[in-house]
Amino acid sequence: MSNLTIGMIVGSLRKASFNRQLAQALVGLLPSGATAQFIEIGELPLYNQDLDANLPEPVQRFKAAVAGVDSVLFVTPEYNRGMPGVLKNAIDWGSRPYGQSVWGGKPAGIAGASPGAIGTALSQAQLRNVLAAVGVKVLPLPEVFFHFAGEPFDAQGGVTDARTRQFLQGFVDRFVEWAGQKPA
């Protein structure tokens, strides 16, 4: 693997969200040769097909950012047993207008954090279904349902618990290896 660029899309808009903290910790575990850039989704208007012929500027920036990375790592919360509407909206914009999707064949990974007992399992399952519909290739395993309890990250975004750090490092290493593979 050399020079893999990963777009980080966080499904929560809250600046100090658990998922943004998890995303920053995952970035801190990237090996050399892999870089990450956060792709923000908070400025995207609600998807409206009437705008397909003249995409709003935030949509153009978003699509260009996604098109410019080799892979995407989605870090999502779970709201009411599903993925956040803002994340679904971003995926919809990326897939439109018809024939101009930025998603097709893009490798992706999914992780999520929640203080809830089941983590983000249902949100991630829903996200996998939506990503399959737009042609994204999602890393099958390992899955990261991060139970956010206590203070899992230090002030610099590092993981405080050695076992958790080892697990997250294994996920990052596997994702980077998988996303960096060239299609046969």
The low-confidence runs, each spanning 5 or more residues with pLDDT under 50, are: none
Please give the alpha-carbon distance between the first and last residues: 15 Å
Helical percent range?
A: 25-40%
Gyration radius over CA: 16 Å
- Described by the principal axes of the CA atoms, the overall outline is globular
> What's the total helix number?
5
The topology string of helices and strands comes to: EHEHEHEHEEH
Mean pLDDT rating: 92
Find the count of extended strands (DSSP E, 2+ residues).
6
Question: Structural class, judged by helices and strands?
Answer: alpha/beta
**What is the beta-strand fraction?**
15-25%
Main pleated-sheet profile: 6 strands, parallel
What's a concise summary of this model?
Keywords: Oxidoreductase. This protein has 184 residues and is an alpha/beta fold.
Notes on the protein architecture:
- With 184 residues, the chain is an alpha/beta fold.
- It has five helices and six strands, in the order βαβαβαβαββα.
- Strand 4, helix 4 and strand 5 form a beta-alpha-beta unit.
- This is 2-hydroxy-1,4-benzoquinone reductase.
- Pfam families: FMN_red.
- Keywords: Oxidoreductase.
Chart the SSEs and their pairings.
Blueprint (H helix, E strand, L loop, with lengths): L3 E7 L7 H11 L5 E5 L18 H11 L3 E5 L9 H10 L12 E8 L6 H13 L3 E2 L5 E4 L14 H18 L5
Parallel strand pairs: 1-2, 1-3, 3-4, 4-5, 4-6
Key features of this structure:
alpha/beta, 184 residues, 6 strands, 5 helices
